[in-house]
Recover the amino acids of this structure.
């Protein structure tokens, strides 16, 4: 592998097996274009605050939009919309923490979304489905794990509901311990 850099330290190319990827940047240092050896390229467009606004495929005319982004006044991403119309939307609580996350799959109904409940440390303790009629259901509800040194709180002794995901929080963060199956 061979790498080249511009005077500002930005990687401008990667070459392997005789094939080269090239990178271009704007004056703010944002990568604006990635070009493959065959000329295919992807361009990223930014707002004045250097947040990505769109990702476009440059090998077609007119340019094909692969993704668009919107941001709130605190530079938190509020939407990501893919070229096929699928959109993910984030909303935040007064403390600035993610409170709702929805996924609107293009051309479908009963899409997936969650509202989050947090403890006093701001850690997610529960993820509640926003749409009980969603096409998604738990395939195998998780069982409570035994306590470990990294567990923030003792595991729940409650039996998980077949339609409510259980979230187990550990010292390194929270993760949904659920298995989803499309039943719709």
């Amino acid at each position: 592998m061979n790498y080249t850099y511009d005077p500002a330290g930005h990687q401008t190319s990667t070459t392997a097996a005789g094939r080269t990827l090239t990178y271009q940047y704007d004056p703010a240092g944002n990568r604006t274009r990635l070009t493959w050896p065959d000329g295919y390229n992807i361009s990223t467009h930014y707002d004045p605050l250097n947040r990505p606004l769109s990702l476009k495929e440059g090998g077609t005319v007119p340019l094909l939009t692969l993704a668009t982004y919107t941001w709130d006044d605190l530079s938190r991403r509020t939407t990501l919309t893919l070229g096929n119309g699928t959109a993910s939307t984030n909303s935040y609580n007064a403390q600035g923490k993610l409170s709702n996350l929805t996924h609107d799959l293009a051309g479908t109904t009963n899409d997936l979304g969650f509202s989050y409940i947090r403890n006093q440390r701001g850690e997610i303790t529960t993820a509640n489905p926003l749409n009980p009629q969603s096409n998604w259901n738990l395939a195998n509800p998780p069982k409570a794990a035994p306590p470990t040194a990294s567990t923030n709180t003792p595991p729940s002794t409650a039996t998980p509901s077949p339609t409510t995901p259980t979230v187990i929080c550990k010292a390194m963060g929270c993760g949904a311990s659920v298995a989803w199956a499309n039943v719709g």
Summary: Confidence is low (pLDDT under 50) at residues 137-184.
